Amino acid sequence: MYSSIRPEVELTLQKAITLLQNEIRALEDTEIDVKAFDNPAWAYKQAYKNGYKKALRVVTTILDQKDNKDEQSFRGPDASSRSEQGLPERISR
Questions:
Q1: How many helices (H) and strands (E) would you count in the chain?
Q2: What is the mean pLDDT of the chain?
Q3: Distance (Å, rounded) from C-alpha 28 to C-alpha 7?
């Protein structure tokens, strides 16, 4: 996967990715548990879980990059450009 890094670093990255993917699966399992709906604050807990799961996926995507040269690959496929977000373009120094 990573051609320019040492094998032990690649192994560490793969372990981190596996741990993150396991955490995502565990979150998804709790989402379909019937007991989760017994809480009056269910919507808030669900929103928290959704945000946490999104963050885990972003980190997993960053760690699982094959070619880190492209900035778009870090932002992910669903990220919009800075101008689409209403942000100014970056100023090169």
A1: 3, 0
A2: 79
A3: 32
For residues 68 and 82, give the distance between their C-alpha atoms in angstroms, rounded to a whole number.
Answer: 19
What letter represents residue 54's amino acid?
Answer: K
Distance CA 64, CA 56 (A): 12
Please give the structure tokens belonging to residue 5: 């890094």
State pLDDT tens for residues 8-33: 888 999 999 999 999 999 999 888 88
d(CA 52, CA 30): 13
The three-class DSSP label of residue 33 is coil
21 and 64 Cβ atoms separated by less than 8 Å: no
CA distances from 59 to 35, 54, 91 (A): 29, 9, 26
Q: What's the Cα-to-Cα distance from 34 to each of 18, 26, 37, 38, 77, rounded to whole Å?
A: 27, 15, 6, 8, 33
